[in-house]
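REQUEST FORM: STRUCTURE PREDICTION
Request ID: SP-0412
Submitted by: Lab K.M.
Chain count: 1
Length (residues): 147
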Amino acid sequence: MDISINTPALLFPAISLVMLAYTNRFLALASRVRSLHDKYQSQEHKHLILGQIKNLRYRLKLIKNMQALGVLTFLLCILCMYLIYINALGWAHVIFALSLVSFTVSLLISLLEIQLSTKALELELSDMEGLENPSVLEYLKKKFDKE
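STATUS: Completed
RESULT:
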C-alpha cells in the first residue's frame, strides 16, 4: 500500500475531537471528585462516599491513559508525515500502523471508562424506588399504563 503525506494528516481532526471529548470527561470527573471530597469531609457515612471516590480515581487513571495514547497517536502521525517527507516509506508504514494501534487502544479504554461510568450511575440511582433498570419495553408499558 502506498501512503501519501495526507494519509496520517487525515487522522488529525478525529484525534482532536476525541481528545476534546476526553478532556470534557476529565473535567466532569474532576468536578465530581471535588464535590465528593467536600461531602466526605462533612458527612458521617464516609464509607459510601469513599467507595465512589475510589471508583472515580480508577476512572481518572483510565482517562489519563486515554489522553496519553491520544497524544502518542498525534506524535506518531507527525513522525509518519516526516518519514514520508524524507522518503523513508518503510518506516512510515510501521509508524502509521503504530499510530492506528495507539488510537484503537485509546478508544477501547474509552469504552471501558464509559461502561464504568454507566455502572456508577446505576449504583447511584439504585436506591431510588422504581428505577430497577427495566427494559425499554417495560418502561414504555408502565409509562403509558399510568396515563
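NOTES: Residues 6-146 form one domain.
Reviewed by: T.R.
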